[in-house]
């Protein structure tokens, strides 16, 4: 049972309740930017804490994960019940969607049975009114014995009311009513009746709903209203043939906003500032301070280059998460999972991973981060490990260059085929991992379709900020180290700093790595070095090839692939690959180890170095095998 | 009949929920013997299906719906 806090100066409040009740909106409205989001120990569930000072009193608020019950079957449910039973709290607020009382009261009743005193916050009063639901607050308080408050999540008056209650209410003056005591006695009777297992659970759950029905018959009035906005929208967005093209249109819009209209232009502008003015300014300052050459190179190429490559992803990530948070806030994401589930299930994934995975065609990083929205460990890991196979924006130039150079008559078809290779590999890999690791876990799919709502902008912005910041801080450190390391390999050899990259450690290692591809038709050190630099960033594969074949100034943009291919045709590269070995190289590039940015994100999202190294090694091995099959199979069929 | 066999628009009463991994979650979310359920729609590709129970909407796969016995009430 929650006991009184020792420190009289701080009021400790916990928010609990079902998902989709506006609980997080209340939390965000109360605490605003004065919140910190961490992790509950040992699990990837967000722990949200915030504070506010109201009328001279300091209030600490914790937003517990939204759950339908506290049977402790999921990590979230276990967190909620453990916290409520162990933490020293002054007040536990149960946030309830008033338009959906029956199911929401299930958690309420279950918590009251466990002796946790609650203040009931009947939220979303506006929606309940629209749906013809009227609740008698006084009667409800009497029926349960605990205080009840009405709120409309977003308006200032509701928030002020809540803060007033936080600072004035004393839960000690409340206790279970006679009706509630009678219900608890019945539950105890059932527990002692000799029933076991699922039969016992069924009897208990039935008794809870019987009690809820009894409460509602007493305190609520339901009058019928015409069909709601949600029903009208669902008859288009989640029904019939139109739902799928509408989903594609919305997806396309998110993609355009992120990678064309808003995100990418900001990223490009940032890149220009970092690689241009800022680098020049730092170079000038270092020169002026007479810093050693190697140190200058480390700062300019290694650190600014490396950190710069992290920073230019930030606008994309912020934009993408803004769009996804917004859509999630409207309730549309649940419909996406609903309409796409049969397709995704065939691939071994859940309908809920559609949105995050689609982002993988732009960039793997937000795609991996998007897997957070999935509701179990298996789906999250499978979605995270599927994302890197897709053709991201940085792999496209590799495909475009090789296609233009070795398949000039069929370039577009070959590039398209590589997209298909990516999708097929994502599916094949998911099937492999399912068979290897999750064989015994039956996928379940039970999804609430919440009413459509206008998202709370404060909540959308705070979510976006949290995810963007997390990427910058945590993934950034790993990426930074990776960039410095690869820079060092490319700039030094045993004798010190080198003039040409072809004399560096990178080239020596390239020769070793190249030897791995002897039977793939591209066992040369240049290809080996390109493969290594691709682990830094897929963007650097093309530029590394340019450097190694003596054309350091070639464009790495996909649009310029034809010109680049013409220039490179005059170099040793034309002889280094045949059409078939070029194809094998493209297939390899499509599948192998993602860039350090993506690897850093995998580490952050799975909270596991093991998972990150597994992904890096596993994808390299898979690429090696598939690319070998392409080359040797092609040779057997008589291709060159 | 089972919930899987119900046509869009039908109202049915739940009679029995067969054992499955979902059983406890389904009951927790308000789907217990005696509850009235309205079949709202199927997803465009036929699966999953959406039902209305206790003033909210829930989506479930047809193979899970097949384990829920119901009788028609409207």
Automatic annotation (TrEMBL), chain B:
Listed Pfam families: FeoA
GO molecular function: transition metal ion binding
Transmembrane segments: none
Location of the Ferrous iron transporter FeoA-like domain: 1-72
UniProt keyword terms in alphabetical order: Iron
Entries under SMART domains matching the protein: FeoA
Identification of the protein by name: Iron transporter
Organism of this sequence: Anaerovibrio lipolyticus
């Amino acid at each position: 049972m929650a006991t009184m806090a020792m420190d009289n100066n701080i009021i400790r409040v916990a928010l609990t309740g079902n998902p989709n009740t506006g609980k997080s909106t209340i939390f965000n409205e109360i605490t605003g930017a004065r919140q910190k989001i961490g992790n509950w120990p040992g699990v990837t569930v967000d722990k949200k804490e915030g504070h506010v000072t109201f009328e001279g009193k300091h209030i600490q608020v914790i937003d517990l994960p939204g759950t339908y019950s506290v049977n402790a079957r999921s990590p979230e449910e276990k967190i909620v019940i453990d916290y409520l039973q162990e933490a020293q709290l002054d007040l536990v607020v149960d946030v309830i969607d008033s338009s959906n009382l029956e199911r929401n009261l299930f958690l309420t009743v279950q918590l009251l049975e466990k002796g946790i005193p609650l203040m009931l916050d009947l939220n979303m009063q506006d929606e309940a009114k629209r749906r013809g639901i009227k609740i008698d607050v006084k009667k409800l308080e009497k029926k349960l014995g605990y205080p009840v408050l009405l709120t409309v999540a977003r308006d200032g008056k509701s928030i002020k009311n809540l803060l007033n209650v936080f600072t004035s209410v004393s839960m000690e003056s409340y206790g279970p009513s006679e009706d509630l005591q009678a219900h608890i006695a019945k539950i105890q009777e059932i527990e002692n009746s000799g029933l076991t297992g699922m039969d016992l659970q069924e009897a208990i759950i039935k008794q809870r709903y019987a009690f809820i029905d009894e409460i509602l018959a007493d305190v609520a009035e339901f009058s019928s209203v015409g069909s709601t906005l949600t029903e009208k929208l669902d008859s288009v967005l989640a029904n019939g043939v139109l739902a799928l093209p509408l989903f594609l249109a919305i997806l396309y819009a998110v993609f355009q906003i992120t990678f064309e209209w808003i995100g990418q232009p900001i990223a490009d502008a940032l890149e220009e500032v970092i690689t241009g003015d800022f680098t020049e300014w730092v170079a000038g300052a270092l020169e002026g301070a007479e810093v050693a050459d190697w140190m200058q190179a480390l700062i300019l190429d290694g650190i600014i280059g490396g950190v710069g490559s992290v920073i230019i992803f930030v606008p994309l990530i912020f934009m993408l998460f803004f769009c996804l948070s917004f859509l999630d806030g409207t309730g549309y994401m649940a419909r996406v999972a609903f309409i796409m589930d049969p397709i995704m299930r065939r691939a071994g994934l859940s309908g809920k991973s559609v949105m995050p995975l689609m982002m993988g065609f732009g960039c793997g990083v937000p795609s991996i981060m998007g897997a957070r929205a999935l509701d179990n460990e298996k789906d999250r890991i499978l979605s995270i490990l599927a994302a890197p196979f897709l053709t991201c924006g940085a792999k496209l130039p590799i495909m475009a260059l090789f296609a233009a150079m070795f398949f000039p008559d069929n370039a577009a078809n070959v590039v398209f085929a590589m997209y298909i290779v990516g999708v097929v590999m994502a599916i094949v890999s998911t099937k492999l991992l399912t068979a290897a690791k999750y064989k015994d876990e039956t996928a379940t799919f039970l999804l609430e379709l919440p009413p459509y709502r206008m998202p709370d902008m404060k909540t959308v912005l705070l979510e976006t900020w949290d995810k963007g910041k997390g990427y910058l801080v945590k993934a950034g450190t790993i990426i930074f180290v990776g960039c410095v390391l690869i820079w060092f390999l490319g700039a030094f050899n045993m004798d010190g700093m080198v003039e040409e990259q072809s004399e560096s450690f990178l080239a020596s290692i390239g020769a070793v790595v190249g030897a791995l591809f002897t039977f793939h038709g591209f066992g040369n050190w240049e290809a080996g070095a390109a493969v290594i630099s691709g682990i830094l960033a897929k963007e650097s594969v093309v530029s590394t090839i340019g450097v190694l074949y003596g054309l350091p100034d070639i464009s790495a943009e996909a649009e310029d692939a034809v010109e680049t291919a013409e220039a490179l045709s005059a170099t040793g590269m034309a002889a280094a690959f045949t059409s078939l070995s070029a194809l094998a190289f493209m297939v390899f590039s499509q599948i192998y180890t993602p860039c350090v940015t993506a690897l850093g994100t995998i580490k952050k999202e799975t909270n596991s170095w093991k998972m990150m190294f597994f992904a890096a090694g596993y994808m390299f091995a898979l690429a090696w095998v598939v690319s070998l099959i392409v080359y040797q199979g092609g040779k057997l069929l008589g291709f060159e | 009949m089972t919930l899987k066999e119900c046509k869009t628009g039908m109202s049915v009463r739940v009679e029995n929920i067969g054992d499955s991994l979902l059983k406890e979650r389904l009951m927790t979310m308000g789907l217990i013997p005696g509850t009235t359920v309205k079949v709202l729609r199927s997803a465009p590709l036929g699966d999953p299906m959406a039902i209305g129970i206790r003033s909210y909407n829930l989506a479930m796969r047809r193979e899970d719906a097949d384990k829920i016995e119901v009788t028609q009430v409207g």
